[in-house]
Amino acid sequence: MHLISRLTTRLLAWHLKPSDAKNYDFLDGLRGLAILLVIGCHLVYVNPNSSGYVKFIGGIFGAGASGVTLFFCLSGYLVSLPFWKRKWANKIPVVPTGYVSRRFYKIYPPMALSILIFTPIYLYVEPFQGLLRTAGEWLVGAPLLFPVDGRFNPPMWSLIVEVQFYLMLPVVMLVFRNISMRKSIWIIPLLFALIGICSRYTLAAFGVVGTLYPNIYVPFLSGLDMFTMGVLIAGLYTMGLIAKSWAKMGNVGLLMFLGTLPVGSFIHLTQKETWCQEETISFIQKMAFGCMLLFVADDQCFASKLLCNPLLRWIGVISYEWYLFHVPIYWWIRNALGPANGSSLTYLIIVGGSFMASLLLAALVYRYFSLPILMYGRNHNKPTVK
């Protein structure tokens, strides 16, 4: 354990500290938790003919898809924080210097690299009709507005939601630039919540529902409510309205989230999950993740220290790259080995091999590709808010 601790401490030297916010280590840990939830959801599978107990355990892993919502909550906090700081200080312009380039350097290069790596492999291993067109659509950003084939890399749907938030945040902040901070910290998060919920419900009433597979279609603005709690907590924190005692709510949020995992699995096993049930569980999880952000009030409390585990933090640092690369690798390994047919060794190789191979690739991509680009962007965009 001491060796692992020393190794991860050295690996954390890769970490690029936020330019516009205090570096709370637990935020890296939350990223690590989020990506582990997503990886577990995508890699762990069960035989449809398994016992109810096994299916229930599999359903708990499947509920780890909510890790994506945790990512959105973190983005809402971290991306909006410099905007709130500028508004609180009455600084002009409202949009932080280098905002667009920092978002671009973070999101686009690793995504483009994954496409350039995966496309020739798909052509050799598992070509599908429209592969090159799909790759080109991702490279030019077409999925922001139009449906795209999801067979290339289904998890990339979340990038569409992220970028939509990146585009809307400065617009909303500019619209409310003359509204007081005390009013804005309530109005703006509420606006994000209403836009996301109302657009999703309205479209559903007309039969328009977002899909992730086989086609990815994320209607514009329909996911903005997933950033609400992060934006709200960032605003409250900027004004110093979060008391140290509020950190206890982080524990409540953690328990709320853990409770949704077995409940979601049970509902999925006993009946076909309805849209209303799905929305209810999603709402509880959004609130839970917002509460977990309140560890910002006391980053030395017990739960926050657990999230500061060096290994978990390191996983959080490379989480975006791991998110991009894990699913196609899993597909190819599973297709190459075929069904496990009850063999624990084969199953372990499929799941464990996919886990380790994608983790190693993500680490290499971050260290030798993403990190130099991020450092380049940081050097050319000095922070405007301390």
Account of the protein in words:
With 386 residues, this protein is an all-alpha fold. It has one domain (22-379). The protein has helices spanning 2-11, 25-43, 52-62, 67-88, 99-125, 131-140, 157-175, 181-205, 228-238, 248-270, 275-292, 302-307, 310-317, 319-337, 344-379; strands at 148-149, 215-216. It has a two-stranded antiparallel sheet with strand order 1-2. The chain is globular, with a radius of gyration of 21 Å. The model has no long low-confidence stretch (mean pLDDT 89).
Key words describing this protein structure:
386 residues, globular
TL;DR?
This protein has 386 residues and is mainly α. It contains 15 helices and 2 strands.
Task: Report the principal-axis shape.
Answer: globular
Q: Poorly predicted ranges (pLDDT <50, ≥5 residues)?
A: none
Radius of gyration: 21 Å
Q: Mean pLDDT score, rounded?
A: 89
Q: In what range is the share of β-strand residues?
A: under 5%
Helix content: 55-70%
The computed structural class is mainly alpha
**H/I helix tally:** 15
Number of spatially distinct domains: 1
How far is the N terminus from the C terminus?
A: 37 Å
Report the biggest beta sheet as strand number plus sense, adding barrel if it closes.
2 strands, antiparallel
